TrEMBL record:
Swiss-Prot/TrEMBL keywords: Heme, Iron, Membrane, Metal-binding, Monooxygenase, Oxidoreductase, Transmembrane, Transmembrane helix
Transmembrane segments: 18-35
InterPro entries, sorted: Cyt_P450, Cyt_P450_CS, Cyt_P450_E_grp-I, Cyt_P450_sf, Cytochrome_P450_monoxygenase
Similarity remark: Belongs to the cytochrome P450 family.
Lineage top rank: taxon: Eukaryota
Cofactor needs: heme
GO molecular function: heme binding; iron ion binding; monooxygenase activity; oxidoreductase activity, acting on paired donors, with incorporation or reduction of molecular oxygen
PANTHER family: CYTOCHROME P450, CYTOCHROME P450 12A4, MITOCHONDRIAL-RELATED
SUPFAM superfamilies hit by this protein: Cytochrome P450 (SSF48264)
Protein name stated in the entry: Cytochrome P450
């Protein structure tokens, strides 16, 4: 050793020597990494593509290309129902394992930590452990109960009517991006339901003015995915890249925090002064409930983080589902006709429907469920950590700490459940729902970490779909095609083309 140190100190540190030393260090690091992932790994026996086992870059590069779900889907045919999709992660095909993985109170993987909001504050989505999440969920669930949502009917109606008015003036003249339109509508609704605040996103959209909140909300999920997959140091460096578009993405979180923080502060002050809102928004509920883990009121920064989280979780998911459903209807006059007949019978001459009656319209609900099945917004694997003792899946043992999950893209196309027409959009299948369909339909996930906003999401979708289909016939713009609509998946899905331009022709014109 002394000899080696002597030799090193006698070396002349020219730039060539430094480069050689760096290359040698990199080689040693890479070999050690490969040795660990191939030879020492406790899941080395799980079949899968070699690059996926070698490094995280296989998953990251497919994530960045938005097609990881397709690659993983193909792997099952080649490697069987249990596939190694990363150095320490495995994806399962068999939907019968859904309860084991998602109802077993297993922790989420560390990448969820990248979804903290309000400058690094944890929220229910980013919480890794069940107990931390349960404390937060108890406070929010009453806001999305049916009894609460029906009280907001006037808010839903006023924003939907604004959209109808805009489309009546513009939709036939030039195509409208339904993805952005619905997202702006949802942001206005969530503004009131979550923050008791008017955001006026649809008004800005109608005037082609960028809305800063809408921009931050649409940028945020991409930021979360990238941040979650990069080493914190690499992210710190990446944050400095002086590119305007990239900076909008990097700053999406602080921009939202700057907007939501003062609203939360004001609401808390009003509550402390004795105000009793007749119709509490989420910010009021969270400000008054007790954090069951801490035994005291939620800190202000946690309330801010949770409210931001709901804006994010409730916008892109629902707007994507609505967009793919509207795009499908623009190409499927048979489905549109049947839907319009049902809605005409239910709504008559009214432009907006009764919110409760919509839940009882069979074909409308069948179209939405089929939309959520075929175009699930969260279609990749939602990974969890195998707990102590490990577990056997389809004959393959996975030890404690393995990241494991199922992707809804695959589950929603399982021929054993959905039949040979699993890839087709066929709302009729929901008119005779089977137990297998119930068990394998997972757009909102299942178990203790399922989507707490699913009731709101279903209300949103019923309302938007009923209003758009009742009032308009829809045709795709010339440039809106199956390739521009190819799903691009970065945690949640969006069309590859980034938008979905459709023509809206008023039905009574
Ligand atoms: C079509 C619309 C929606 C879909 C498909 C959807 C889907 C999902 C899924 C699959 C999860 C589980 C994620 C995971 O385990 O990684 C989830 C979690 C969550 N969703 Fe939704 N969601 C939708 C709308 C909403 C809405 C409207 C809200 C609230 C305004 C919301 C709030 C949340 C929250 C807070 C979580 C985290 C829950 C936890 O981890 O305990 N979502 N959602």
């Amino acid at each position: 050793m002394e000899h080696l140190v002597e030799r090193l100190s006698s070396l002349e540190w020219t730039s060539t020597n430094v480069a050689l030393a760096a290359a040698a260090a990199l080689t040693v690091y890479t070999l050690a990494h490969l040795f660990r992932n191939f030879v020492l790994s406790p899941i080395k026996h799980v079949p899968g593509p070699m690059p996926a086992a070698a490094t995280e870059w296989w998953a990251l590069s497919h994530n960045m290309r938005g097609n990881k779900y397709l690659r993983v889907h193909e792997l099952f045919d080649k490697y069987g129902p249990v596939v190694r999709t990363g150095p320490s992660s495995v994806t399962l095909r068999n939907y019968r394992y859904l309860p084991a993985v998602y109802q077993g109170k297993w922790d989420k993987i560390a990448a969820y930590d990248g979804f903290r909001t309000n400058r690094g504050c944890p929220n229910s989505f980013s919480a890794i452990g069940q107990s931390e999440a349960q404390g937060k969920r108890r406070g929010m669930l009453p806001q999305y109960a049916t009894a609460c949502l029906v009280e907001w009917q006037d808010v839903f109606n006023s924003h939907l009517l604004e959209i109808v008015t805009f489309l009546r003036c513009n939709g036939a003249v030039k195509p409208v991006d339904v993805l952005a339109l619905v997202a702006h509508g949802l942001i206005d609704i969530l503004g009131e339901l979550v923050l008791d605040t008017q955001i006026n996103a649809v008004a800005d959209f109608a005037e082609s003015k960028p809305n800063p909140i809408a921009r931050a909300i649409t940028m945020w999920p991409k930021r979360g995915t990238i941040k979650g997959q990069l080493h914190p140091l690499v992210w710190k460096v990446a944050e400095q890249i002086p590119h305007a578009g990239w900076q909008h993405l990097v700053q999406a979180d602080s921009n939202l925090a700057d907007f939501v923080e003062p609203i939360v502060k004001k609401a808390r002050k009003q509550l402390e002064e004795g105000a009793q809102p007749e119709r509490p928004a989420l910010v009021h509920r969270l400000s008054t409930c007790t954090n069951s883990m801490l035994g005291e009121r939620w800190p202000e920064r946690d309330v801010t983080a949770e409210c931001i989280d709901h804006f994010l979780a409730g916008t892109e998911t629902t707007s994507t589902s609505m967009t793919y459903i509207m795009y499908t209807l623009s190409n499927r006059p048979d489905v549109m006709k049947r839907l319009q007949e049902e809605l005409d019978g239910f709504m008559g001459l009214s432009e907006v429907p009764d919110i409760q009656g919509l839940a009882r319209q069979p074909y409308l609900n069948a179209v939405i469920k089929e939309g959520l099945r075929v175009f699930t917004p969260a279609l990749g694997s939602l990974d969890r950590l195998v707990p102590k003792g490990g577990m056997v899946f389809d004959g393959v043992f996975l030890p404690e700490g393995t990241a494991v999950g199922l992707q809804s893209w695959t589950t929603h196309r399982d021929a054993e459940v959905w039949g040979d027409d699993a890839y087709e959009f066929k709302p009729e299948r929901w008119l005779a729902e089977t137990q297998e369909m119930k068990a394998a339909f997972i757009p909102f996930s299942i178990g203790g970490r399922n989507c707490p906003g699913q009731n709101l999401a279903m209300y949103d979708m019923r309302l938007f779909l009923a209003v758009l289909a009742r009032n308009f016939d829809v045709k795709p713009a010339a440039h809106t095609s199956s390739s521009s609509m190819e799903p691009y998946d970065l945690t949640t899905v969006s069309p590859t083309g980034g938008k979905c331009d459709l023509h809206f022709f008023p039905r009574d014109s």
